[in-house]
């Protein structure tokens, strides 16, 4: 007996992330607030891309500029501690 070909199942796309700065108008991107900016860097100290963080393009540019500015004035580290 011949086997029937199996149907390919499509995976549903994950829900689109919402920019937290657009969602909450009171929240601003500020280089002097390392607590907020820490959400947008990895354990290794790299800036998380916008497709993962869910930021819109203008806010992602502001976040990356704020992280770089905070690193220059030593509010945030350039790399993770350790090795």
Can you give a write-up of this model?
The structure is a single chain. The mean pLDDT is 89. This protein has four helices and no strands. The N and C termini lie far apart (61 Å). The longest helix is centred in the last third of the chain and has 16 residues, at 57-72. Helix content is 34%, strand content 0%. It has a domain at 20-72: Ribosomal protein S18 (30s Ribosomal Protein S18, Irregular). The chain has helices at residues 20-23, 34-37, 50-53, 57-72. It is an all-alpha fold and 83 residues long. It is elongated, with a radius of gyration of 19 Å.
Unreliably modeled segments: none
Structural class: mainly alpha
- CATH top level of one domain is Few Secondary Structures
CATH architecture of one domain: Irregular
Q: Which percent band covers the strand fraction?
A: under 5%
Overall body shape = elongated
Q: How do the strands and helices of this protein lay out in sequence?
A:
Elements: H1 20-23, H2 34-37, H3 50-53, H4 57-72
Question: Which key features would you list for this structure?
Answer:
30s Ribosomal Protein S18; mainly alpha; 83 residues; single chain; 34% helix
What's this model, at a glance?
With 83 residues, the chain is mainly alpha-helical.
């Amino acid at each position: 007996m011949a086997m029937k070909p199996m149907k390919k199942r499509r995976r549903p796309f994950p829900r689109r992330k919402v920019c937290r700065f657009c969602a909450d108008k009171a929240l601003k991107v500020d280089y002097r607030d390392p607590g907020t900016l820490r959400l947008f860097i990895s354990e290794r100290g790299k800036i998380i891309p916008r497709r993962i963080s869910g930021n819109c393009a203008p806010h992602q540019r502001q976040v990356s500029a704020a992280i770089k500015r905070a690193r220059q004035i030593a509010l945030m580290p350039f790399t993770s501690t350790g090795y």
